[in-house]
Amino acid sequence: MIQIEVKNVFKSFKDVKAVRGISLAIPQGEFVALLGPNGAGKTTLVEMMEGLKKTDSGEILIQGKTWHKNENELRKIIGLSLQETRFAEKLSVFETLRLFASFFGLGDERVVEIIELTGLQSKQKSMTGTLSGGQRQRLALAVALLNNPQILFLDEPTTGLDPHSRLDLWHILKSLKEHGKTTLILTTHYMEEAESLCDHIIIIDEGKILREGKLEDLLDENSHNLDELFINLTGKTLNENYERF
Ligand SMILES: Nc1ncnc2c1ncn2[C@@H]1O[C@H](COP(=O)(O)OP(=O)(O)O)[C@@H](O)[C@H]1O
Ligand SMILES: [Mg+2]
């Protein structure tokens, strides 16, 4: 069953054409990477899929339904973490999760479960303001997973993390893939992340899809890895604009 359908979607901010005619269809259980450099339009596209931004034109269907009129129903089946998550610094990890759980009518049992799943046991009493980058991203993932979503959106879940924290997060997502029927859409500019986690890779630049497919179908004798493919397609590298991180 198709979980997400994007049909010829456009979105501009004044004179910036952030998304320029994107169409895609994502089946249940697939892990999909939106891979592209800074400014490619990844966040704009996922925020429209998440029902947080309106399209200028085109259509987005989640399990066949539009956000308009079905928002309450769709909020229950999706989980999301935004590109930069800020928590109330004076709340502990446990209190933060309890607050978000209450929005879904979920109790402390679910909070305990999700703390174990994301490996935050030793941090549950810590104020969120004291967490490391990796712990904060695991908390953002924990919040996104609370309602056991059928569709999970993660925007740059490991940007700025050290390699060890990045692997921790990948490990959690891989176990989610083994155990569940979750459909995952993640944005990243790390080709290793797309390669390691995702069944389907969609390469985006300047608001358009350049290529998409399974890793092995995207590579050939001219492009031995995704970075090379991206350079061959655009003349620039994936991480060119990310020095500031
Ligand atoms: N709220 C906004 N107002 C104006 N321009 C925006 C806004 N959001 C994004 N943009 C612009 O749209 C383009 C795509 O941005 P974004 O979707 O954030 O890309 P990515 O997530 O791939 O880095 C960029 O040129 C960005 O500056
Ligand atoms: Mg972004």
Distinct bound molecules: adenosine-5'-diphosphate, magnesium ion
The CATH superfamily turns out to be: P-loop containing nucleotide triphosphate hydrolases
- Looking at the overall shape, the CATH architecture is 3-Layer(aba) Sandwich
Structural domain count: 1
Q: Unreliable stretches, pLDDT < 50, 5 or more residues?
A: none
Q: CA-to-CA gap between the ends?
A: 38 Å
Averaged pLDDT: 94
Q: Estimate what percentage of residues fall within beta strands.
A: 25-35%
What is the N-to-C succession of helices and strands? Answer: EEEHEHEHHHEHEHEEHH
Condensed summary:
By secondary structure, the protein is an alpha/beta fold.
Which helices and strands, and how do they pair?
Layout (H helix, E strand, L loop, with lengths): L1 E12 L2 E12 L3 E5 L6 H8 L7 E6 L8 H7 E4 L11 H11 L4 H10 L15 H13 L5 E5 L7 H17 L3 E6 L2 H7 L2 E6 L2 E6 L1 H4 L7 H9 L11
Parallel strand pairs: 3-7, 3-8, 5-6, 6-7
Antiparallel strand pairs: 1-2, 1-4, 8-9
Helix pairs in contact: 3-4, 5-6
The protein binds adenosine-5'-diphosphate and magnesium ion.
Description:
With 245 residues, the protein is α/β, with parallel strands linked by helices. The chain has a single domain (2-85, 149-242), classed as P-loop containing nucleotide triphosphate hydrolases (Rossmann fold), CATH 3.40.50. The protein has nine helices and nine strands. The N and C termini lie far apart (38 Å). Bound molecules: adenosine-5'-diphosphate and magnesium ion.
